[in-house]
Design goal:
By secondary structure, the protein is of the alpha+beta class. It is built from ten helices and eleven strands. The chain folds into two domains: 2-162 and 302-310, 2-Layer Sandwich (Ribosomal Protein S5, domain 2), CATH 3.30.230.10; 168-297, GHMP kinase, C-terminal domain (Alpha-Beta Plaits). It is 36% helix and 28% strand. The strands form two sheets. Strands 1, 2, 3, 4, 5, 6 and 11 form a seven-stranded mixed sheet that branches. Strands 8-9-7-10 form a four-stranded antiparallel sheet, sandwiched between helices. Strand 5 (148-154) and strand 6 form a beta hairpin. Helix 1 packs parallel to helix 2 (95-110) and helix 6 packs antiparallel against helix 7 (216-222). The structure holds L-homoserine (HSE).
Length: 313
């Protein structure tokens, strides 16, 4: 019997240009999760620290993702799951995705990898469905695979890893308000104007091209959101001011991280990222609002094992 502890990274979904189809993983913030293989055929969440989340398998994103995966396997063992949440639910940096991705990754490792990472994304998406009401993979795919990930198609699922330039850093500033993805999806329009779709497609293509050619100027010109930002930004305190401050301090661009309220910026080099992070954070501090801020290189690994123990029976 084995027990495995994994680091489950935070992620930035949408990345301004690619609503529901583009995401990236970061490094300096994430949950940890320990999954123990047991001899009785039972799936159980035994402990959650750091957040007030349901322990029932069918009510918890990790439980739902694990259950979906185990349904496709003919095994006689069970699993106990312990979750340490460092990513606040409702923060916009993939809290539910970290749990869903972490659990399927850990179980897959304990079973000597019956599934590929891309196959695991499909199971982890079931957790996202519970959390947000929609089957989106732009957090779980980068959480599992690392780096920038494009979901080219959902039906059939087609997941593509995208190059990230080595000097690219992400900054995340999280004002302490909670926005539920399920709520922020409800305010979105069901239809998009053709003129906005043309601009958005062009910028998404520009961003992907810039990522492959290490063209930071092109990345910068392309980081625009014509479809989602005008609606969701209204829910985020001091959004326009924070975005302007990021740009004035040298960010390549910025936008809403996932469904918010976190705001991300992309920067060239760590020095620039630190400067941008401090400036963005200062907007909230100056206005008397609590906020956390992180900066990180793009995390190329995704979920990773930090401890693997064989237990004495
Ligand atoms: N693409 C999803 C959304 C990500 O914006 O609703 C949620 O983190």
């Amino acid at each position: 019997m084995r027990k495995i502890t994994v680091f489950c990274p935070a992620t930035i979904a949408n990345v301004a240009c690619g609503f529901d189809i583009l995401g990236l993983a970061i490094d300096n913030i994430g949950d940890t999760m320990t999954v123990t293989m047991t001899s009785h055929k039972k799936l159980e969440i035994t402990k959650i620290t750091g957040a007030d989340l349901p322990m029932g398998i069918d009510e918890n994103v990790a439980g739902v993702a694990a259950k979906a995966m185990l349904k496709d396997l003919d095994i006689s063992c069970g699993f106990e799951i312990e979750i340490v949440k460092n990513i606040k639910p409702g923060s916009g940096i993939g809290s539910s995705a970290a749990s869903a991705a972490g659990v399927v990754y850990a179980i897959n490792e304990l079973l000597d990898r019956p599934f590929s990472l891309k196959e695991l994304v499909v199971y982890a998406m079931q957790g996202e469905k519970l959390a947000s009401g929609s089957l989106h993979a732009d957090n779980v795919a980068p959480a599992l695979m690392g780096g920038f990930v494009l979901i080219r198609s959902y039906s059939p699922i087609d997941i593509i890893s995208i190059n990230s330039p080595t000097e690219l850093y992400a900054v995340v500033v999280h004002p302490q308000v909670e926005l539920k993805t399920s709520d922020t999806r409800k305010i979105l329009k069901k239809e998009v104007l053709l003129k906005d779709s043309i601009k958005q497609n062009a910028d998404l293509a520009g961003l992907i091209s810039g990522l492959y050619t290490n063209d930071y100027e092109l990345i910068s010109r392309s980081l625009n959101d014509y479809i989602i930002e005008p609606l969701r930004s209204l829910l985020i305190p001091f959004y326009d001011k924070v975005k302007l401050t990021a740009k004035q301090n040298g960010a390549l661009g910025s936008g809403i991280s996932g469904s918010g309220p976190s705001i991300f910026a992309l920067c060239k080099g760590e020095e620039s990222a630190v400067k941008v992070k401090k400036a963005m954070l200062k907007v909230y501090i100056d206005n008397g609002l609590n906020a956390n801020a992180y900066h990180s290189k793009i995390n190329d690994n995704g979920v990773k094992t930090i401890k693997d123990e064989v237990l004495q029976s």
